Amino acid sequence: MKKRINILVLILIIALTFVTLFSEDDEDKGTIKFKELPKKVQKAFLKISDIKLITEIESEKETENITVYEIETKKGKIETSHIFTQDGALIEIKKSIDYNELPKITKKLLKEKFPKLKIEELEEVQEFSYEIEGKLDGKTVAIEISNDGDIEIEKENDENENDKYDNDEDDDVDD
């Protein structure tokens, strides 16, 4: 009898361990409450939206030192996502849109390049960055730094400055 109890206790401990291990959210991402956001993020969000519209808030650890916060809102049929750094800098805004809100050129490209595409979701995305122009080692440079820390540098005197852009003539589309 005592042996059966020990076995049952052991099975229970193993089961609880598995439940605990596999039911925990990903360490780097989780749902949080507005009051748990850093004060700078709260303040920045309240400048552009209303707390009453919030449907979900997630925090995600991008790197060891950087956490971003995504605040999702809904007003009528329009869903919007605001992504902030921990110091309150707005990185990106995504807003749900209807197909008829797409620019003509975008519709034309979709029809030409992806004729069989069945659209499930459309979002307008605005990313925020800063452009800085100046001289570096005697050469004119243009530096773009996004709020999430990505850096792109273009050197004016570099023959390959446009390599990062897709210059395929096949992709050109007339209005």
Characteristic terms for this protein:
175 residues; alpha+beta; six-stranded antiparallel sheet; disordered C terminus
**Rg of Cα set:** 24 Å
Q: How many beta-strand segments?
A: 9
The CATH topology name of the largest domain reads Nuclear Transport Factor 2, Chain: A
SSE sequence, one letter per element: HEHEEEEHEEEE
Q: Please tally the helical runs, counting DSSP H or I stretches of 4 or more residues.
A: 3
Q: Taking all residues together, what is the mean pLDDT?
A: 80
CATH top level of the largest domain is: Alpha Beta
- The strand line-up of the biggest sheet is 1-2-3-4-5-6
**Which bin fits the share of residues in helices?**
10-25%
Task: Quickly give the structural class.
Answer: alpha+beta
**Model regions low in confidence, pLDDT < 50 over at least 5 residues:** 19-26, 158-175
| CATH hierarchy: architecture of the largest domain | Roll
Portion of residues in beta strands equals 25-35%
C-alpha termini separation = 84 Å
Envelope shape = extended
Question: In the residues, how many domains can be counted?
Answer: 2
Largest sheet: 6 strands, antiparallel
